Amino acid sequence: MGQAQQTEKQTTIGLVGFGGFGRLIAQELWAGCPVRICDPSYTRACLPDGRRVPMEGLAEVAQCDIVILAVPVARMAHVCRVLAPHLRPGTLVLDVGSVKVAPMRDMRALLPLHVEILGTHPLFGPQSAKDGVAGRKIALCPERGERWRKVAVFLKARGLEVIVTTAEEHDRELAMVQGLTHLIGKVLTDLEPLPERMTTASFDLLREAVGMVQDDPPTVLHAIEVANPYAAEVREAFFARASELQAQFAPQRIVSDVA
Fold first, then answer.
1. I need a surface site. Which of 80, 122, 163, 182 has the fewest CB within 10 A?
2. DSSP 8-state class, residue 16
């Protein structure tokens, strides 16, 4: 009798949320792994390249080996509550939110102890990764379990730079990195139309940066500026310095000494 050949079971991935970043995730994973998608906003949808995507229920998606939560930070607690009863022991649940302290607190509190938890933040979006994710950065915040190490290996194989950190370290750094970028981007967007003819290289770079964030949904700006516990401190320091400069550059009143 010939020896039976064993084949390694292919990892299945469940995706909860099919917004802009959810679509990017599905696009990147679709060719290599079976992906099951749940988003009540859609009955069927398309990937960016036009391929049609069937939608499934939350209970079905929860049966996958890895479940990715691509939902707004404000919805994380609700999604964890309704997802928790359907998760199998050993499942790895990860999020892709722009802040980490609050979502990971919700996952710790609301997901069952028999699942593993990993916080992630891809430091790019649909705009900046439209030509691929190779060379981009992603932050990993391990919380529970060891399967995150396999995720890190997979991501590195895709050409991503993996940064392992904590939720607190992440939010403290991103309070400036994203907080100021989106804040300035929002202000400049509200000042449109911006000049396009007589521009400098530095202004063109600034406008390019604004273009990468101006189409983000309001939930992203809210998460970055409100859900990040360190954002207010950075924002206040920025506005305080801006106020000092405003006073410094304000026109000086000339008082006439003529009676």
1. 163
2. E
- 230 contacts 172 by C-beta, under 8 angstroms: yes
pLDDT value, residue 253: 61
pLDDT at 211: 85
55 within 8 A of 39, measured Cβ to Cβ: yes
- How many CB atoms sit inside 10 A of residue 67's CB? 27
CA atoms within 13 A on the CB side of 200: 3
Specify the pLDDT at position 6.
44
pLDDT of amino acid 219: 85
Is the whole-model pTM more than 0.70? Answer: yes
Strands (E), the chain: 13-16, 35-38, 44-46, 52-54, 66-69, 92-95, 116-122, 137-144, 161-164
Three-class DSSP category at 116:
strand
Token look-up 């099919």 returns: 18
> What distances in angstroms separate CA 49 from CA 24, 36, 45, 147, one per listed residue?
10, 18, 11, 31
What are the chain's domains? Answer: 13-166 (3.40.50.720), 170-247 (no CATH)
Give the whole-angstrom CA distance, residue 213 versus residue 211: 6
What does the block give as tokens for 238? 């920025």
End-to-end CA distance of the chain: 117
> Hey, is 137 helix, strand or coil?
strand
Residue 247 CA to residue 204 CA, distance in Å, equals 28
Determine if residue 242 is left, alpha or beta; phi over 0 gives left, psi from -120 to 50 gives alpha, anything else beta.
alpha
Question: How does DSSP classify residue 73?
Answer: G
Q: Which pLDDT belongs to residue 44?
A: 74
pLDDT the model gives residue 2: 43
- Counting as low any pLDDT under 70, the low residues of the chain are 1-8, 31, 253-259
